[in-house]
Design brief:
alpha/beta; about 375 residues; globular; binds 6-O-phosphono-alpha-D-glucopyranose; transferase; 14 helices
């Protein structure tokens, strides 16, 4: 195809930069000319009739499922459970009486996910595929499709598809919530909130140099690293660490900040990089800061990524405040840039990491 890198050295950076535009595009696609949210009514009805949402996915899409769990539970009033495609293909757990399956897949071609979809179809479970590729296998074989409209994603490491998945599911949640008269959904102005997210992303993108400088000292030679966070930030930590592993080959783990002390803190030594994510959630922010102090006391080299309202003078990377349903989108951006610059500074091929394929069509 003709999709070029333009002036960009790598697709990954180009695709990171496209995210504000993708957020705005989704607001156009999933609203009508009066600004009302429009999601296919058949999807809404099938979801409202269900008693539990199951999100099935692999890799970064699996992490996007976690990042969307909170907003979907709040807006739809249904419990949301996550499933790894390659596990559920062989070990489907006991399901609720009226399950609704959501397949998250950038490519729509992941064989592990398709295997679960085939079984779900046999069981008569309503299935929605959320994908970037119209006409893809998972889209064709599912009862329903929602598209990500993120434009082709070429870099092997997924960035804009992750944030687009969360945003698309926010529209789904809003539409379902309106249908059931959920007060939180009525109050959640998804278009406005996503426009603030787009601005937050832009603000972070304008700080590339600051982020690159942090990375140069922290990740140029290290063999391992940790991301920590609580709640939504824990889910972002999972994706942040996957991204870093994929493109920099640094062994990295995303940890629930409070769980680190129950074993893994044994790995913290002088200079171990620990990146802490702290979104504006009063219930947990102080606790995550406590966990930061614990690792600092053991010699960790800490970088904090913090939302503006709760940031201190000595925090490293500050992001704009956004709606808590969408904080994963805004908080993940610095971590995408961290992965990108780590790969660059280690002299690696950012767009084509060893051993990885853009989409895996074998089980
Ligand atoms: C591969 C890619 C990952 C991707 C995963 C799921 O492993 O390298 O970046 O997250 O497949 O792909 P999908 O297209 O289903 O989202």
């Amino acid at each position: 195809s003709d999709i070029g890198k333009g002036t960009y050295p790598f697709y990954m950076l180009k695709e990171i930069d496209e995210q504000p535009a993708v957020m705005r595009k989704l607001s156009q696609v999933y609203t009508d000319d009066k600004g009302h949210v429009t999601v296919d009514d058949a999807i809404i009805e099938a979801l409202v009739a269900s008693d539990r949402i199951y999100i099935i996915a692999a890799g970064t899409s699996y992490n996007a499922g976690f990042a969307s769990k909170y907003l979907l539970e709040e807006l739809t009033e249904k419990p949301v459970e996550l499933g790894i495609s390659s596990e559920w293909g062989y070990n489907m757990p006991r399901l609720s009486k009226n399950p609704f399956f959501i397949f998250l897949s950038q490519s729509g071609e992941t064989a592990d996910s398709r295997q679960v979809l085939v079984k779900a179809n046999e069981l008569g479970i309503p299935c929605l595929t959320v994908t970037n590729v119209p006409g893809s296998t998972l889209s064709r074989e599912a009862s329903f499709t929602m598209l990500l409209h993120a434009g082709p994603e070429i870099a092997v490491a997924s960035t804009k598809a992750y944030t687009a998945q969360i945003a698309a599911l926010a529209f789904l949640g809003k539409a379902v919530g309106l249908k059931i008269d959920n007060k939180k959904a009525i109050d959640f102005d998804v278009v406005h909130e996503l426009s603030l997210v787009a601005q937050s992303i832009e603000a972070t993108l304008s700080e590339k140099e600051l982020i690159e400088n942090k990375v140069a000292g922290l990740l140029e030679t290290t063999r391992n690293a940790f991301y920590i966070g609580r709640g939504q930030d824990y889910y972002v930590s999972m994706e942040a660490s996957l991204k870093l592993k994929e493109v920099s080959y640094i062994q990295c783990e995303g940890f629930a900040a409070g769980e680190l002390k129950h074993g893994t803190i044994a790995l913290i030594e002088e200079g171990t990089p620990v990146i802490a994510l702290i979104a504006n959630n009063a219930k947990v922010a102080a606790h995550t800061r406590g966990n930061v102090s614990e690792v600092v006391a053991r010699g960790a080299n800490v970088v904090t990524i913090v939302e503006q309202d709760i940031a201190n003078a000595d925090d490293d990377i500050i992001t704009n405040n956004v709606h808590p349903y969408l904080s994963s989108i805004s908080m993940v951006i610095p971590t995408q840039l961290i992965a990108y610059y780590a790969s660059l500074h280690r002299g690696l091929d950012v767009d084509k990491p060893r051993n990885l394929a853009k989409s895996v069509t074998v089980e």
